[in-house]
Amino acid sequence: VRCQPEKCWNGFTLFQASIFEGKMAGAVLIDLNGKVVKQWKGLEGFPNKMLPGGFVMGSTAVRDPKISFQDMTDLVQMDWEGQIVWKFDHLELIQDPGHEAAWMARQHHDYQRQGNPVGYYAPGMEPMTDTGHTLILSHRNVTNQKISSKPLLDDVIIEVDWQGRICWEWQAGDHVEELGFSPEARQTLYQNPNLVVGNVGDWLHINSISTLGPNRWFDQGDVRFHPENIIWSSRQASLMAIIDRKSGKIVWKLGPDYSTSPELIKLGWIIGQHHVHIIPRGLPGEGHILLFDNGGTSGYGLANPGAADGLNYLIRDYSRVVELNPLTLEVVWQYPHFEHPGAAVMAHSKLYSKFISSAQRLLNGNTLVTEGGCGRLLEITPQHEIVWEYISPYFSPQMKMNHVYRAYRVPSAWVPQAELESAVPVCPVENSVLRLDRSACSLKG
After folding, report:
1. Which residue, among 269, 291, 299, has the nearest Cα to 192 in the 3D structure?
2. According to DSSP H, which parts of 5-104 are helical?
3. DSSP string, 332-394
């Protein structure tokens, strides 16, 4: 759609053409010209990630969506030719009605390979490709009367070694008392924990996990930011938190209530956010938290005209990408940029995806944004200029959408099998002067 090569960080961009089905397209790797460099057909991505050497990660199948909610059967690493060189599927032996018993990873939304904290390029931090541990976000079905009277779909973070042995785990339901829910939120959560397929409550819907990696806060003596600690994001609770890796306790959190201090009020409500992570060392903004603040609906609270039972009582009809200081909660950078608070009401015309989506900090200081609901990828400068834009042409025949869960930009050195071509300048069309030749159009009644 547009490209200003002199202002872009050139490299390859990987995304999945469909989240759950989309077997026709799978993982797609493009250059800045939008040219398809490689496809791994049938490789699902929740998300897909590139590793150095032309390796790609994803899943080969999805658990029956009529029975379960967002479970991938495995997590695999493929080489350039599509051969599986690593696989994990041994979290749980599943016997679904009408299906043979099978081991499944139940992976969803995120994972990280040792060597890199966030899964995208940062100088000197390459993810391992032939050894190392993998951090995986998975599911377990539980009952927990402290949370709800309904069955729950609980989030569990596991760490597996290269042989697929689980060597560490953390389960969200064990820490509900640390999350800061108000009495009103707890009552709403108890009655309706966000019931999904199978009539189970996807009560937190954690959608990103990553280690903190080396950072200035820890260097300055703040032990909450130990490089091995883990930051996660709950879409449903509009909450993000850091886990102490050794104790499992939550040592830092933001949300679920953004009205309890002047700093939070100035920050504004974060609603249904995705891809919360610490910008890695070596990239502009290192140490800050970067996230896609979706808007849409989320949260547990008091019943209101928009949420009769208090579920999804928060609502906002625009999105924003936010970079913030985790100590002061000051917004360091934001897109769209508003000259004054009243301008925020027009933000939906620039950016809005009420689900999925992501943001990645690039080496040149730009930010790669995935506006997932409409399959739109943007590279945005610190001055808020869009210098690259691509809209996915892959429409799911089942869902009639071209949504993209999360895209990643990687350097050409990570993909030695392909030659990186020079980007061609593309100017966006000026709508004010665009006119269609009616003689070239045909209308059918």
Report:
1. 299
2. none
3. EEEES--SSGGGGGGGGGT---SSS-EEEE-TTS-EEEEEGGGTEEEEE-TTS-EEEEEE---
Pairing of strands 12-16, 408-410: antiparallel
The answer to whether 350 touches 338, Cβ cutoff 8 Å, is: no
Sheet holding 75-78, edge to edge: 44-51, 55-59, 75-78, 84-88
| Residues 388, 360: Cα–Cα separation, whole Å | 14
pLDDT band at residue 428 under the 50/70/90 scheme: confident
Q: List Cβ neighbours of 32 (8 Å cut-off, separation of 6 or more).
A: 3, 5, 8, 10, 11, 13, 388, 423
Q: Which of 225-229, 283-287, 335-339 has the lowest mean pLDDT?
A: 335-339
Contact 420, 12 (CB under 8 A): yes
Residue 296 sits at the vertex; the CA angle it makes with 295 and 302, to the nearest 5 degrees, is 100
190: part of which helix (H) or strand (E)? helix 183-191
Phi and psi at 188, nearest 5°, equal: -60, -45
Neighbours of 97 (CB within 10 A): 7
CB atoms < 10 A from the CB of 287, how many? 22
Could you give the dihedral angle defined by the CA atoms of residues 64, 161, 202 and 303, in that order, rounded to the nearest 10 degrees? -160
What phi, psi does 178 have (nearest 5°)? -95, -5
Element containing residue 102 per DSSP (H, E)? strand 102-104
Cα 193 from Cα 151, distance rounded (Å): 9
Q: Which two tokens stand for residue 441?
A: 């159009």
Task: Kindly report, residue by residue over 84-116, the tens digit of the pLDDT.
Answer: 999 999 999 999 999 999 999 999 999 999 999
In whole angstroms, give the CA distance from residue 307 to residue 298.
10
Query: Do β-strands 358-361 and 311-316 pair in parallel, antiparallel, or remain unpaired?
Result: unpaired
* Helices and strands counted in the chain (H then E): 3, 29
Q: Which amino acid is at 4?
A: Q
The label of the residue with tokens 């953004």 reads: 258
Compute, in degrees rounded to 10, the torsion defined by CA atoms 142, 143, 145, 151: 100
Residue 36: which region, alpha, beta or left (left: phi > 0; alpha: psi -120 to 50)?
Answer: beta
Report the C-alpha gap between 229 and 242 in whole angstroms.
Answer: 7
In the numeric block, which tokens belong to residue 148? 């709800």
- Written as six digits, the tokens of 6 are 């002199």
Phi, psi (rounded to 5 degrees) for 349? -80, -15
